[in-house]
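User: Predict the structure for this protein chain, please.
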Amino acid sequence: MEYNIRAAKNSDHLALLMLMKAHAEYEGHSLVETAQHQKLAMVESLPVTLFVVCLDEQLVGYMSVIKQYSTWDLDWYYYLDCLYLTKETRGQGLGGKLMHHLKDFAKERGISEVQWQTPHDNFGAIEFYQKLGGVNKMKQRFFWSI
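Assistant: Here is the predicted structure, written as structure tokens:
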């Protein structure tokens, strides 16, 4: 299995959009494409770091990371917004490689913590994150449309 993890490029935008739609479907939602999604064509200038996983030059997964500041810790951390791999590539160790890539990325930038969340019923992801040493906090996530 020949894989490569790299920062997303503008030319990845259509494949990224397809992966994002698949990710939404996997979590029981649908991603309705809007004009906002055209911004993916300029992914290199978005205020998020997107990494992609390529197998033989085909995109099979992605991870999005945002730098945030904690007022409790008075320090920066990375928030892992999304991590998704296609059904065919799950269970082959690529998720772990993505997470270790993120760990190295954070260390290189002097960031000592990564935070993320996953749906409460995504038992495979919960087990995966716990095996990595991730510690979960019981919190509710709220959305407020403005």
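The mean pLDDT is 91.
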